[in-house]
Amino acid sequence: MKKNILALASLCLVGLSATAQEVKYEEYDLDNGMHVILHQDNSAPVVTTSVMYHVGAKDENPERTGFAHFFEHLLFEGTENIPRGEWFTIVTSNGGSNNANTTDDRTYYYEVFPSNSVELGLWMESERLMHPIINQVGVDTQNEVVKEEKRLRVDNAPYGKFFENVKKHMFKKHPYRWTTIGEMEHLDAATLEEFQAFNKKFYVPNNAVLVVAGDIDVPAVKKMIQDYFGPIPRGEEITRNFPKEDPITEQINAKAYDANIQIPAVVAAYRTPSMKERDAYALDMLSNYLSDGKSSKLYKKLVDEKKMALQVGAFNNSQEDYGTYILFGLPLGDVTLNDLMNEIDEEIVKVQNELISERDYQKLQNKFENQFVNSNASVEGIANSLARYYMLYGDTALINKEIEIYRSITREEIQEVAKKYLNTNQRLVLEYLPEEKDQ
């Protein structure tokens, strides 16, 4: 789930000097189309078994939103060989932990076990794929779980509907226009047969990548994978042909209301390219320059010096098909949303007209170097990265070479993406207000 606006604003990287170790891995395909990636690290007796499915909120029927996230819950219900409600008991009783998460682009399941339980992890994930039990009892149970999650994280959370309101204005054709958690009335209206059909279409080996990372014996694990996953039938091929968005050519002005907030916010959102494009990397660096930490340009100017904002920030929400670059601010005292937006715009114009300093550029490089090292600091993180780079970027090797892309981004490129994407006629300006009014 998306974090709320305040949490997003506080994200920062620690600028420490570090050196990345090369992640070694082996990858291959099973006959049924499942991609397999193995990473051996015998430094600690721990193993991560994970499966990422290429199915997210964008793959849903517009009248049945929330299915992908719903399955994140539903597929823990049980299988033909794992009794209902026993999944977590089996994992914890064997010294393990597990979790899952869903985005607009993919769904990810994983277990972390002592390495002597690697076979257990593989068996459980193969069970989830081959023998899930999708019945009305499970659907009804998880329906209530998801509704409670939505109440907690969206409906009753301050700024919880922030992304929902941005997305619906930024995307008119592409399925990024709805939220990952979806609409509860869609889940209520869905039939059991619709849930079963969704599972049959997307939860197939040729739409998945299996990653095993940690303290493993590679030949033994290969045999286990063949034994447990090899017999699973290949599914029908999935074709995606999502509609393209028309360019935004004039500023979109909108308002949204949230009964859970007392301080309004102003948001400027710009549509940007896929996470796979070089420009997305430059936009990542720009967002860090503007708002990562108390020494960043927006924070220092508007929070520290001018004391116009309680919080201010920028972040680049890159996704598989498009990205959304977001600037936001929460005003302090009597400062108006319009005045705050004008001040933020001034900083954008500066970046468009002037190169960032060499010193700031080097700080950015240090931050991204450290982030890169930290992402591969555990076998759990490595497993996630291997799956993500293969599935969403189509290049597993990015686990070792992505940092080279950031290193190669120049100050001129950072300036160019600001000039290319962050223009007033290419954006949404959303006033996010603390009380409901007649509209």
From TrEMBL:
Pfam families in the cross-refs: Peptidase_M16, Peptidase_M16_C
Signal peptide as annotated in the record: 1-20
Residue ranges constituting the Peptidase M16 N-terminal domain according to the UniProt record: 36-180
GO molecular function terms listed in the Swiss-Prot or TrEMBL record: metal ion binding; metallopeptidase activity
UniProt keyword Protease present: yes
Xref: SUPFAM superfamilies: LuxS/MPP-like metallohydrolase (SSF63411)
Top-rank lineage group of the source organism: Bacteria
Peptidase M16 C-terminal domain boundaries: 190-367
Zinc in keyword set: yes
Alphabetic keyword roster: Hydrolase, Metalloprotease, Protease, Signal, Zinc
Example of a GO biological process term: proteolysis
Residues forming coiled coils: none
PANTHER family in the cross-refs: NARDILYSIN, PROTEIN YHJJ
UniProt family annotation: Belongs to the peptidase M16 family.
Protein name per the record: Insulinase family protein
Annotated source species: Oceanihabitans sediminis
